[in-house]
């Protein structure tokens, strides 16, 4: 096994590059924080909802030094690699051998290279200090990691990659278990018809205030309206200028100028699975986002 670490500046490496042997990649379910209210004289509680807070990842590992001094050097090098105030991304790899017919089998005998276990990654940071226990010329420990921001796994690739290149598993961006489909209609994220649908392969709602979501509408004019009939969200442009409308997270621009004031101040979200859309003007609409997973 192995993990790939990608820093926020794009630098990427694997722990195996530095002689570390990963024994496991243990991911918890997202933690749930429930909110309740209580009324005097009333049995039970009033459910005020719940939110996901974070999730933990534990990576047990070991390494072998040439001598006692080498163990200390490897320990210090590992600290310099993973102990950082900035978050970073981690991606899991496992020893897997391939059989005809798309059948995969895990292998721990060391005779096969590590392969990406899926097209997902986690944005994380060390949750606490950790120690490395030395036994002769071996060092052993485990890294306590927790998610930063959202407690979800996110797809490496985006819908823009699918729109441009299709669903190519050879790119190592996609994998089984990500909710993807061979149905060609699920691979289209640019439309120019009055009614269309967008497929969210993740099992988490995509919200522009929390996740990456960019919607580009070409050559729209006053009165343009885009409705997600699945969620009930309606976006309307009320300004006078015509041109390209871009909804990039919470930012709305028209011809690259801020234009939130020229809208109904509503934003579009994407439910898991199919999302049905209608638009009042027959314009080209593109959706760019990642998939998110509990």
Model description:
Helix content is 7%, strand content 43%. The protein has 294 residues and is mainly beta. Strands 1, 2, 3, 4, 7, 8, 9, 10, 11, 12, 13, 14 and 25 form a 13-stranded antiparallel β-sheet that branches. The protein contains two helices and 25 strands.
Lay out the secondary structure.
Blueprint: E1 2-7, E2 12-14, E3 21-22, E4 26-27, E5 32-37, E6 46-52, E7 56-64, H1 68-82, E8 88-99, E9 103-106, E10 114-116, E11 120-126, E12 133-135, E13 138-147, E14 153-155, H2 159-165, E15 190-191, E16 195-200, E17 213-220, E18 225-228, E19 233-236, E20 243-248, E21 251-254, E22 257-258, E23 273-279, E24 285-289, E25 292-293
Q: What is the count of distinct domains? A: 2
The level of helicity is: under 10%
Q: Mind telling me the CATH class of the largest domain?
A: Mainly Beta
Q: How much β-strand is present in the residues?
A: 35-45%
As residue ranges, the low-confidence spans are: none
- Topology, number of strands: 25
CATH architecture of the largest domain: Beta Barrel
CATH topology of the largest domain: Elongation Factor Tu (Ef-tu), domain 3
Shape annotation: globular
What structural category characterises the helix and strand content?
mainly beta
- Between the first and last Cα atoms, what is the distance in angstroms? 22 Å
- The total of helices stands at 2
Taking the sheet with the most strands, its summary is: 13 strands, antiparallel
Radius of gyration: 23 Å
Q: What integer is the average pLDDT?
A: 91
Order of helices and strands: EEEEEEEHEEEEEEEHEEEEEEEEEEE
């Amino acid at each position: 096994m192995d993990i790939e670490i990608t820093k926020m500046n794009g630098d990427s490496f694997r722990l195996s590059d530095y002689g570390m042997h990963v024994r496991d990649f243990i991911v918890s379910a997202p933690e749930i924080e429930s909110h309740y209210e209580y009324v005097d004289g009333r049995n039970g509680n009033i459910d005020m909802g719940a939110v996901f807070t974070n999730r933990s990842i534990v990576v047990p590992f070991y390494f072998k030094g040439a001598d006692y001094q080498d163990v200390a050097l490897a320990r210090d090098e590992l600290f310099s690699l993973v102990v950082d105030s900035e978050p970073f991304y981690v991606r899991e790899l496992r020893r897997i051998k391939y059989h005809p017919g798309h059948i995969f089998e895990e292998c721990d005998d060391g005779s096969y290279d590590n392969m990406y276990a899926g097209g997902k990654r986690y944005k994380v940071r060390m949750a606490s200090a950790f120690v490395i226990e030395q036994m002769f010329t071996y060092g052993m420990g485990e890294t306590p990691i927790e998610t930063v921001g959202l407690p979800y796994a996110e797809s490496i690739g985006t819908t823009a990659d699918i729109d441009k290149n299709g669903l190519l598993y050879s790119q190592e961006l996609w994998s089984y278990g990500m909710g993807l489909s061979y149905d060609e209609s699920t691979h289209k994220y640019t439309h120019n018809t009055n009614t269309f649908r967008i497929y969210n392969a993740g099992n988490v709602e995509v919200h522009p205030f929390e996740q990456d979501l960019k919607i580009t509408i070409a050559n729209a004019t006053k009165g343009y309206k885009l409705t997600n009939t699945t969620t009930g969200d309606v976006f309307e442009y009320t300004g006078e200028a015509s041109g390209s409308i871009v909804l990039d997270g919470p930012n709305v621009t028209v011809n690259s100028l801020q234009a939130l004031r020229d809208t109904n101040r509503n934003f579009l979200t994407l439910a898991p699975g199919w999302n049905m859309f209608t638009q009042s003007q027959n314009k080209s609409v593109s959706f760019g986002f990642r998939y998110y997973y509990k």
